[in-house]
Amino acid sequence: MRYFVLCSALFFGLQISSQNQDFLKIDSILKSKVDENHPGIAVGILKDGNIIYEKYFGLSNLQHKVKFDEKTRSNIASTAKQFTALMILDLSLNEKLSLEDDIRKYLPKLYKNVNDKIKLRHLLNHTSGICDYVELLDLEGDVWWKRVGLNNDAILELIENQVELGFKPGTRYSYSNSNYNVLTKIIEKISGKTFNVYSKNFFENLGMNETSFVEGYMKVIPNRANPYSDWGRGEWWEVPTVTKTNGEGFLFTTLKNQLTFEKAVQNANHNNNVLLIKSQQPIPNSEIKTYGFGLELEDKLGRKAMHHSGGTYGFHSQTYRFPKEQLTIFAMSNNGNISTNLIAQEIAKILLPKSENKIKYDSKFYKNSEANDVIVLGKYTYPLINKIVEIINNKGKTFWKEKNFTIEMVSEDKNLYSFTNNKKLKVRFYRDIMVEYYPSGKTMTYSKVNDEFLSKSDLENLVGNYYNKALKVGFDLKLNEKNELQFKLSSNKGFNDVTFYNRKYGIANNFFLKVERDLFDRVIEISLTYGRAHNIRFRKKTNLKFQPKISTENGSIEVTTIGSKKGNSSTILLTKNYANGNEIWYKKFGGSSYDKASSIIDTEDGYLIIGSTSSYGKGNYDMFAIKTDKKGKKLWQNTFGGFYNEYGYTAEKTKTGFIIKGTKQNCPNNTDINRKCITNVWFVTIDKNGKEVSNQLLEEIKH
Predict the structure, then answer these.
(1) Whole-number Å distance between alpha carbons of 135 and 155
(2) What is the C-alpha separation between 117 and 124, in angstroms, rounded?
(3) For the chain, how many helices (H) and strands (E)?
(4) How many CB atoms lie within 10 A of CB 275?
(5) In the prediction, which pLDDT does 619 show?
């Protein structure tokens, strides 16, 4: 018995000694990050339901040299989302709402034209498609942190003005602070209390009496830490706080309060606390399992984890929970020069045992790439995020380039690469796609973007003014003297270069642009993605024109319509011009009535003019096509249509001829002046000699 006691004492003595060594390492890490006269940091650690570490370093207020201690209340930013989610989950468990409820049940003014259900659970795990207010305000030229008194009412009004979502709810994940601002309004609707009052009572029930969301940007918060950063200047600057949004962040709490909550979470199974148990699990019926009730659920450091970070100009925080190891690490800081996330990870690596989890890539990873002739270099798009990644070669090395981020890739096998900063993350290239393989089994598939040469006429088609009514913001695309496209948001001062990789995708500064065309191939709209604001539609305001001009090496070929002196007829004029616009030669086409030109396309042996005519054909106006040689000599002409009005606007080459695109009118009769006629888009396929092969009626044109 004595031997057993001695062995036990020795074992526990060694365990305590090892733990003390770990704590000294953690102390050393924190002291290396924060000087005693710098903005501070607080770190707490729980193991097996007990607090084993609680330390404070630095200052909460530099001006008055106030220490960052157990009374200090610091802003934990987005780490606060778990508490807003917890309130929603609590209301759900008490049958005051359902996570399957459409948010319009409580806030009927939101997205009236969206037919898809926007469920409460979509808000909770950022799959709603609601754009982040931060980016929306930025687009308006009204940066959120400069808006004095910005609150949840103003954010709700901003969201009410939005007509469309960034994507169909439930189809993808896109982190958006707006989701949690909306949740606060739903809590207010159900409870009949302001969110500040409701949340304060909720925190008191959790034993967190020194925890509260911001109530007013000028209202005093006892023992409040101030946020600081040196912004690269080498001297500390305080970051102004003039907003009072909450629910998505701006929660001031003490380390002691947070540890009280973390202890309850860690002991939830033992105490059968259903609310806290369910809060750590994926949301029922959710399309994604990597984000839950205000918590990220992806593995960390090779093991199962629940975690979340928060950051807002100087204030930041990090929570890591490792349920199998019964280990929780929480850190919060008012020092913008350090990272609580990286610090918490360093601490976790000290305290966690060696991971037994084996790397398990998706099953597709273990199948070799299909071919030897795969071209790795090029541009790839990930449509769910709307971004372009370039795989480039520089001095014989391969790099992944994404906006301002570039990292070297290392070849491991045929068409298989890893990264110099993360060898566990793999990228395999196939003929038309590349796939990122994560050790957890997660994959991300990128489609290869085919570069296209954009002609001057393509670029001119993009030029114009585009406008979004909801934001009351527009942007301009223009060509400079070098025929390079430039982009300017109406809320910005200057133009930026814009690059279009093909006729659909482009980037300008931090904006991803996606072009939409009508059936006549004219640019009518550009969807803009900016950070967490996806697919915001900007309608082209400038007149939509067809292409009456072709650029040549030494000038241009152009078609126009010229009226007669008496105004009782018109003629189609074809001209060849020098680069300065002076005419080289001209040709006229038409008959005794009205003939109009819409566009011209270049062919191998000449030009094809598309327009409409009342001089020839079967009806009032017929679609009109004229084929010429390179010197403007007419080779043939033909009309297409019936009794009512048919107009030709543009054409495309095919292998056997052309497709002429225009409109066709259909009326119930030709006598009633009050008759209602329908106009449809009309495609006519012809051979190289102008003979009709087939025709097709498409969508009706709404007037």
Answers:
(1) 12
(2) 14
(3) 12, 41
(4) 16
(5) 82
Residue 647, beta-bridge partner list? 663
Q: Amino acid identity of 140? A: E
Nearest Cα to Cα of residue 600 among 653, 557, 544: 557
What is the DSSP-derived secondary structure letter of residue 130? P
pLDDT tens profile 438-469: 887 888 899 998 888 888 878 888 999 999 99
Specify the amino acid at residue 58: G
- pLDDT at position 384 is 66
Q: Which parts of 62-143 fold into alpha helices (H)?
A: 81-93, 120-124, 133-139
- The CA distance from 340 to 314, in Å, is 11
**Distance of alpha carbon 3 from alpha carbon 335, whole angstroms:** 52
Q: Cα separation of 102 and 141, whole Å? A: 32
With 60 as the cut, is the pLDDT of residue 428 above it? yes
Distance CA 670, CA 489 (A): 49
Distances from the Cα of 401 to the Cαs of 385, 387, 397, 439, in angstroms? 16, 11, 13, 22
73-82, 382-391, 533-542: least confidently modelled range: 382-391
Beta-ladder partners of 318: 309, 331
- Give the sheet arrangement for strand 570-578, strand by strand: 549-552, 555-563, 570-578, 583-589
Q: Which token pair is 481?
A: 């003297």
Nearest CA to 508 out of 491, 480, 534, 488 is that of: 488
Residues sharing a CB contact under 8 Å with residue 567, sequence separation 6 or more, in sequence order: none
* Average pLDDT of every residue of the chain: 91
177, 237, 318, 383 from 534: Cα distances, Å: 14, 33, 27, 11
**Percent of the chain scoring above 90 in pLDDT:** 73
What the block records as the tokens of 106 is: 């409580």
Q: Structure pTM? A: 0.86
Residue 623 is encoded by which pair of tokens? 């679609």
Alpha-carbon torsion angle 257, 261, 263, 269, nearest 10: 170
Going along 118-275, which residue ranges are E strands?
212-213, 228-229, 237-238, 251-253
Q: What is the pLDDT of residues 170-205, one digit of tens each?
A: 999 999 999 999 999 999 999 999 999 999 999 999
511-554 residue pLDDT tens: 999 999 998 889 999 999 998 999 999 999 987 888 898 888 88
Sign of CA pseudo-dihedral 170, 173, 176, 181: positive
Spatial strand order in the sheet of 523-530: 496-497, 485-489, 473-479, 464-468, 533-540, 523-530, 511-517, 505-508, 499-500
CA distance 213 to 227: 16
Q: How far apart are CA 641 and CA 683, in angstroms?
A: 11
| DSSP string for residues in 409-475 | EEEEETTEEEETTEEEEEEEE-SSEEEEE-TTS-EEEEEEEPP-PPPHHHHHHH-EEEEETTTTEEE
d(CA 397, CA 74): 45
Q: Which is nearest to 660 in space by CA: 690, 636, 632, 680?
A: 690
- The DSSP letter of residue 41 is E
Angle at CA of residue 156, ends 151 and 162, nearest 5° = 135
Longest dimension (CA), the chain: 124
Nearest to 639 by CA among 574, 568, 695: 695
**504 vs 701: which has the higher pLDDT:** 504
DSSP run (H or E) holding 576: strand 570-578
The structure tokens listed for 416 are 């298989």
